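Consortium newsletter contribution from the modelling node. Members have asked for a concrete example of what our holo predictions look like. Here is one, prepared for the adenosine-5'-diphosphate complex that several groups have been discussing at recent meetings.
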Amino acid sequence: MDIGLIRPYEVEYNNRDIVDLEEAISALGHKPRNVYVDNMGIRIGKGGIKLTQIVSRDKREDVDVDGAVLRHLGFIKDFEQFGSRLWSVRAMEENGIPVINSLNSWLCASDKLYSFILLSKKGILVPETESSENMFVAYNAVKDFKEAVIKQLRGAMGFGVFRVNDADVAMHIFSYFTNLSKPMYVQKFLEKKGGGDYRIIVVGDQVIGGEFRKGVDWKSNIAQGATPLPAKLNAEMKEIALKTTEALGLEYAGIDIAETKDGYYVLEANPTISWQGFKQATKINPAGHIVKHLITKIKK
Ligand SMILES: Nc1ncnc2c1ncn2[C@@H]1O[C@H](COP(=O)(O)OP(=O)(O)O)[C@@H](O)[C@H]1O
Ligand SMILES: [Mg+2]
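And here is the predicted structure:
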């Protein structure tokens, strides 16, 4: 079978996670294929939808993979560009190509606001959060939470996530956000036991393992210098991770959980995880699990 790895062509995404997936696909006797979401042609005509992609200056090929792993849609600079990339993936799904994570679940989970709406509806504990385009709403949220964390709706790796306890200092930043038409996402700061959080990886309906990411400061992203450590997961944590994955309709995910004196909080559900730290801590490579799960889905 041909297994596509969906990502943009514009930026180099041939990182170690992609290589792990390629190796897992080959090891299982299948063929890895690049699917470049920004290089596709979607021809709509009498015969239905025909998908092609430019793979080099003078070569165009059919996007005729049997299934695909959605990795990244790239850095979006324009609303219509975002639509174009989204609907390229949707066109693959419409043509009967199984994609994991599905575009729908990927969209839900990669947005910090919508994912929290869905999780709280399912009774999953998340930190108190207020999101708004109005800076006075954000200002009041910082006052209420006293110690707050400010995030982007679609950020990653801890970049741009900052902590503030003075609403008037925050107001200066909020006024810049307002000028840039950026929404403000304000969250109550949680004191995490052990100075880090847990990352649990789920594939299908199985927890494949967990790591504890010990931060150098309050952030515990590997990209922010945190150390990945092996973790023993209890039944409650596993259940929260599975419930979170299911609530968002994800088929593979990295669920971040903070342990506090008031219990376990889900900080985030990541639909396109990077697993190098996890691999180091647990000696488990998620790539094989993800590819096997996709192959089972294709065969169904
Ligand atoms: N409400 C919070 N209280 C305490 N720490 C937090 C909170 N939210 C996030 N963090 C820390 O900041 C890091 C980045 O936040 P996160 O929401 O996961 O964004 P990103 O998508 O950038 O990883 C997390 O690893 C977590 O440890
Ligand atoms: Mg995170």
